[in-house]
Sequence to fold (736 residues):
Amino acid sequence: MTINRRTFLATSAAATAAIGTPMILRAQPSEYILGVSLPLTGPFATAGQLVAPVFSLAQKMFNDEGGIAGTPIRFVTEDSGYIPNNTLANYQRALANHGTDMIGYFADSTGAMKLIAPELRGANARIMGSTSFASELANPAENPYQYLSGPTYQSQFDILLQNIKDAGGSKVAFIFSNTEFGRDPIEHGKATAERLGLEVVLEESTKAQGADIPTHVTKLAQSGAEFCILQGYVTGVWPQLIGGARQFGLPVQFKGTFWGMEKFIADRITNEAGPILDGYQGVMPYRYFYDREGAPRYETYAALSKEMFAGTPMENYMSTWALQTMCGLELAVKAFRDTAEAGNELTADNVAETLSAISDWDSGGFFGGPVTMENNAIGTGRVYSYSAETKLFTPTSDWLSV
Amino acid sequence: MGQFAQFAINGLMSGAIYALIAVGIVSVFKATKVVNFAHGYVIMFGAYFYYTFAVIIPGMEGAPAWLASWNPAWMAEMRADLPMFSPMGAVLDWAANVPRILFGLAGALVCNAILGLIIERTLMRPLMGQSIFAMIMITVGLISILSGTASLIWTADADFVPHIAPNAPVRFDLFGTPIFLFGADLVNMAIALLIFVGIVLMVRYTKSGVAIRATAEDQSTAYSMGISVPKVFSRAWVLACTTGAIAGAILATRNGISPSLGLFGFSVLAIVLMGGLDSYIGVFIAAMAVGVMEAMTQWQLGGDWAEIVPYVAVLVVLLVRPHGLFGQAEVERI
Fold:
């Protein structure tokens, strides 16, 4: 066959149609995939296994509401063992398996988010939430696709330090795990303390698990701190530190950040060790699940939990860790839906633009009022205090924005 | 000086726990020449068994009330008048838990002994006479089996267990400096030391101990001298698992119950290498030295260094003495 201009154009048109048609078809998948890595084994498996069930709740709820512009979503969860390299491998595998059907990913640690960040380029970019409140992630210029569903650890430290200042405190200790998670807000916290006129009398780094409690408590006693902020722990170390200090008769008041504020853990410590956590305070970005008045979204979760998790501890109570995940998913799905409703493709760039522009969002109960994404984070929270008698965390401050 | 003493005592208390963990690794190695990489997970099982018998079963419907909390009227009366964190209050809180603590320890010892027998009979004995390397690799595989099984049985849920001893604060002055210690840690240290001394005496002076030493020297010769080497293997595993049960229970009281307890075995392996894989005394000294070094480093340099300095010391010792402080150099005759 001789190729002339006419046959060349016809062949090119046919080839374009043949190659392009699947692209068009791919833009209309039968379902959208959201990949998930969770620490279902390893040191933070307790948190991972408490969070895992909410993905099935979220899938049912979002799909009952019509999915994303009528297309259902499906979560595909894999175990990471809390090893960032495993999360990266899970992400790469999910990309290979689901391609453009996968529109978002949920990762499980600061380390994983930082490791994956350089991968989020061009066709491999996906919108990505996580369990982390790492300050470094709240930087749209560097990480346009990653976001936080609450305040950074630095912001949480700011809230606590301001709270200590307001309470007339002057000497504060920082005790933190020797992990990225633990160290994250320390330098920033020192700067904030200096600005507020507080003296940081102890910076004590501990093992994340199995810390030498007597040694740390001894150093805390010697420091003369009035307040102590604990950072970078989930289930262990922080309760033992508080218990040890109480037994030593130290008058120091302990304050925690998000991951040390779970009622499940506080209740179990109270059951086993007595009221050592009575009066323990900390910062929480969200309302607790039992505070449902005027929180329609929490009511929806409660109704679904009763139906889906009957006979388990989740039937009546959703952990703070699960709430953080739900808030992250709500934000992502809102961004997907708004992007689709605006007639745009669900590319990472389009969704990231919509997400970072979320403003005056009525979350349905998570926060005290409408919130706005700033630097891909929501800088709000309030201080709660635990009562060993009622076994409830109750607010001791107004909603504070930083 | 007083502060030095405070941190040295803290270090010795941590070291005693390391020694109790290490004793299981040495026992298995001495008798079988197998380095048990899964020992941390055997300890984790001990901790979970303690949790099962001290927390789950007493909390079940139908369990006698005295098992969950023994609280006779005279004790309740005494407790009512005491402030919350008084030393006597801590003793009474502990006394109320004594039935479930004993039940928990007994359950952990028995169940871990059975676990040791199962591991030895099903995984180790079939490989007798084969390469030691294969047996060591089996212990590596055992890590996955034990951690997976624990997660199936108990899930990854974190929980807390009662202290084995009253956790009353102990205060006294030394060189003009007030010293603070936890009562439970002192008793844990005493338990660890007693077990350690008991095992060393057993290996030195009992028939079973002589059999273990003979098997460690040369399995074939021990066999030909009428020693039942398979029995020695079994006893070594049971000994490792039962001491592991106590170590697990103590670790659980210090750190709470969670799957991460299994990771303790790895850091203790370095201590065992430092002391000498086949030397109880060497391992004891190494464990105490690492415990004290960790506490001193934490005191002077902070937590980031505390994880590094002791293990640098382990490396230095191994460079100078590849068989550890008191380990026997293996002589190969051609």
The first helix of chain A runs from residue 5 to 26. Chain A touches chain B through 45 residues (CB under 8 Å). The two ends of chain A are 72 Å apart (CA to CA). The first strand of chain A starts at residue 32 and ends at 38.
